[in-house]
């Protein structure tokens, strides 16, 4: 069984996250396989663009909490930052196809894609503050693209929101009743672009995002590591796994 399935049709390589047992959480294995799949697609002259999608009802649940407290606390945030930067810097456009839930670190994965189409069953939430954490590393691709007031609201409240709101605030490109119908004109447009034209055009729109990575990765990874190692975060993650409210809820 592979955690990242691959398919190719008419110039589009599709990468499917396939780790349903943990809701496509960003485990070491999934991240490693996704890195390799991205590298292979980048070197494939037949691939004009990539689609990143998922099996099951969750696009990505974020960090694998079972791994989050193991090893060096900074390893996980740095590994996530490397993955997100790889997506942003990839010389080919990456399009997210979302038909399920996206939470916490999964929103960073979504934000690192160049385009995104969300179906009617998709939901989104920044749940970090409720766990004693903060959306630190994932802010690198997200904050340059999100409406500032909306980012403040959803970062702080952890509220769940749907695809229409996700499109309004800049998290996704569009919300579609039929996600594949919504993808069609985007993919057709990408098929008409030249490899050089797509790569150079992508550099223009991703320059501020890559600048944020180069400037802030180390500081945000350190912040994330500090938070994951805190007593509040341990209580928050334990409460989540035990399906109860953490002690600070009023």
Structural commentary:
The structure is a single chain. This protein is α/β, with parallel strands linked by helices. The protein has a single domain (4-178), classed as 2-enoyl-CoA Hydratase, Chain A, domain 1 (Alpha-Beta Complex), CATH 3.90.226.10. 49% of the residues lie in helices and 15% in strands. The protein has helices at residues 28-43, 65-68, 75-89, 105-112, 139-142, 148-157, 163-168, 179-192, 195-228, 231-241; strands at residues 4-9, 12-17, 49-54, 58-60, 94-98, 101-103, 115-118, 123-125, 174-175. It has a six-stranded mixed beta sheet with strand order 1-2-3-5-7-9, sandwiched between helices. Strand 2 (12-17), helix 1 (28-43) and strand 3 form a beta-alpha-beta unit. Helix 1 packs parallel to helix 3 (75-89). The longest helix is centred in the last third of the chain and has 34 residues, at 195-228. It is globular, with a radius of gyration of 17 Å. The model has no long low-confidence stretch (mean pLDDT 95).
Name of the CATH class: Alpha Beta
Instruction: Outline the low-pLDDT stretches.
Output: none
CA radius of gyration is 17 Å
Percent in helix:
40-55%
Whole-number average pLDDT? 95
Strand order of the largest sheet: 1-2-3-5-7-9
Alpha-carbon distance between the two ends: 44 Å
Structural class: alpha/beta
Number of strands: 9
Report the total helices.
10
Specify the biggest β-sheet.
Answer: 6 strands, mixed
Order of helices and strands: EEHEEHHEEHEEHHHEHHH
Domain count: the total is: 1
CATH superfamily: 2-enoyl-CoA Hydratase, Chain A, domain 1
Strand content: 15-25%
Dominant shape: globular
**CATH architecture descriptor name:** Alpha-Beta Complex
CATH topology: 2-enoyl-CoA Hydratase, Chain A, domain 1
């Amino acid at each position: 069984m592979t955690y990242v399935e691959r398919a190719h049709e008419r110039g589009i390589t599709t990468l499917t996250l396939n780790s349903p047992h943990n809701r496509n959480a960003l485990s070491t294995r999934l991240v490693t396989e996704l890195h390799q799949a991205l590298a292979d697609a980048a070197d494939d002259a037949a691939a004009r663009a990539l689609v990143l999608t998922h099996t099951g009802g969750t696009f990505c649940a974020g960090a694998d909490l079972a791994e989050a407290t193991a090893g060096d606390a900074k390893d996980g945030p740095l590994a996530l930052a490397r993955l997100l930067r790889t997506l942003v810097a990839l010389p080919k456009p990456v399009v997210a196809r979302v038909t399920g839930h996206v939470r916490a670190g999964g929103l960073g994965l979504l934000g690192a894609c160049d385009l995104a189409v969300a179906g009617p069953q998709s939901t989104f939430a920044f749940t970090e503050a409720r766990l004693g954490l903060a959306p630190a590393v994932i802010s690198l691709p997200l904050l340059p693209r999100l409406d500032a007031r909306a980012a403040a609201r959803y970062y702080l409240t952890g509220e769940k929101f749907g695809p229409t709101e996700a499109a309004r605030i800049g998290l996704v490109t569009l919300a579609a009743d039929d996600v594949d119908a919504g993808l069609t004109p985007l993919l057709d447009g990408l098929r008409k672009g030249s490899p050089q034209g797509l790569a150079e055009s992508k550099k223009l729109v991703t320059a501020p995002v890559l600048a944020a990575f180069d400037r802030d990765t180390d500081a945000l990874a350190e912040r994330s590591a500090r938070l994951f190692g805190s007593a509040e975060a341990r209580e928050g993650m334990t409460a989540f796994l035990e399906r109860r409210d953490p002690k600070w809820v009023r």
